[in-house]
Amino acid sequence: MKVSSVPKDVVEPSKRTKRVLPVIDFLVRIVAAISTLGSALSMGTARETLPFRTQFVKFRAVFEDLPTFVFFVLSNSIVCAYLLLSLALSFFHIVSSSALKSRILMVLLDTIMFGLLTMGAAAAAAIVFLAHRGNPSANWFPICQQYNYFCQRISGSVIGSFMAVILFMILILLSAISISKH
Amino acid sequence: MKVSSVPKDVVEPSKRTKRVLPVIDFLVRIVAAISTLGSALSMGTARETLPFRTQFVKFRAVFEDLPTFVFFVLSNSIVCAYLLLSLALSFFHIVSSSALKSRILMVLLDTIMFGLLTMGAAAAAAIVFLAHRGNPSANWFPICQQYNYFCQRISGSVIGSFMAVILFMILILLSAISISKH
Fold first, then answer.
1. What is the number of CB-based contacts under 8 A between chain A and chain B?
2. The Casparian strip membrane protein domain covers which part of the protein (chains A, B) (predicted)?
């Protein structure tokens, strides 16, 4: 009796994780989608007009001024759309736990999207850092000294995007564990 | 006879890929290590002194002037060291094709290093783009107009790093396929 109970104990947790992992995957995808959407919206609507102006120049900062921020909004939007579409495949994995090829496809797509998101977040972070600190060697002035509110918005936006980057790492790890359970 | 030959055909390529995949993994790691090492060295030794000077100012560009480039050199060096160390684990996977937990650990480490490398490359790319084109809205001057040779070096360095990023995507995909063969 003791002998027969041992394999039962070993098999059951494995079966349970096989069920639980796709559900965690599904939930993480939703959180990551919200995170990237928030980042894209927060950056896309960031604008500040200073309360003074000359006859010809209006002092205004919008995200389109910097191509890197346009790339950031684009990459976050693309990744958000991908995450929403991938919910269908993730749901399919909850229902049919034996699908293998679709899981490998998902690892590939997740890795590509992880790369795209990380690129957008890191590039924007480099520019935000420059906006805050400037660079005396290159004679680049820290624009945050004027555009304080604008800088707060874009900093928060980049932080949200980095949260999604960490969630993507978890997604890839979850997929690898799921595949190993076959 | 025909019936017995079918499963044989199905099994053999699977066994062969089980052997071939770790070897490809090993070779890709070597190429990626060379690529990151080259990028780190190329960026780390990039310096240019302009042929004119004033009494007090010497016009000189080195990578340490920009914190993003320091991060780039650091991230490429760390990833290169990781790739060299991971060769041992990769070799172990060639010898023992049944190791599963170590493969999952490798996917996790690869994903983290992929993220680190992508961050360094994308952040440096954002600054290199700025150095080439400048930004009139933020009054950031394109320093490449003066430091031509310096800019060529850092651009090449970033391209090398992005090659390693693509190789990392292949590594993660290879690991996922390897794990699925169990």
1. 132
2. 19-167
**Helix or strand holding residue B125 (H, E):** helix B101-133
> Contact B149/A148 with Cβ under 8 angstroms?
no
pLDDT, one tens digit per residue, over B147-169 is 888 999 999 999 999 999 999 99
Number of H helices, E strands in chain A: 4, 2
Residue of A nearest to B146 (CA): A138
pLDDT in tens, A145-156: 888 889 999 999
Exposure letters A52-69 (e unless 16+ CB within 10 A, then b): eeeeeeeeebebebbbbb
- pTM for the structure as a whole: 0.87
Using a CB–CB cutoff of 8 Å, tell me whether A140 touches chain B: yes
Rounded Cα gap, residues B114 and B109, in angstroms: 8
Which residue from A122, A138, A176 is facing B107, i.e. has the nearest CB? A176
What's the alpha-carbon Rg for chain A, to the nearest Å?
A: 22
* Of residues A65, A107, A180, nearest to B138 (C-beta): A65
A38: tokens are 């928030």
Residue B168: closest CA among chain A residues belongs to which residue? A111
Domain boundaries defined on chain A: 21-48+64-180
Is the distance from CB of B128 to CB of B158 less than 8 angstroms?
yes
Which residues are CB-neighbours of B27 under 8 A, at least 6 positions away? none
Which residue, among B175, B82, B124, has the nearest Cα to A119 in the 3D structure?
B124
Q: Does B61 touch chain A (CB under 8 A)?
A: yes
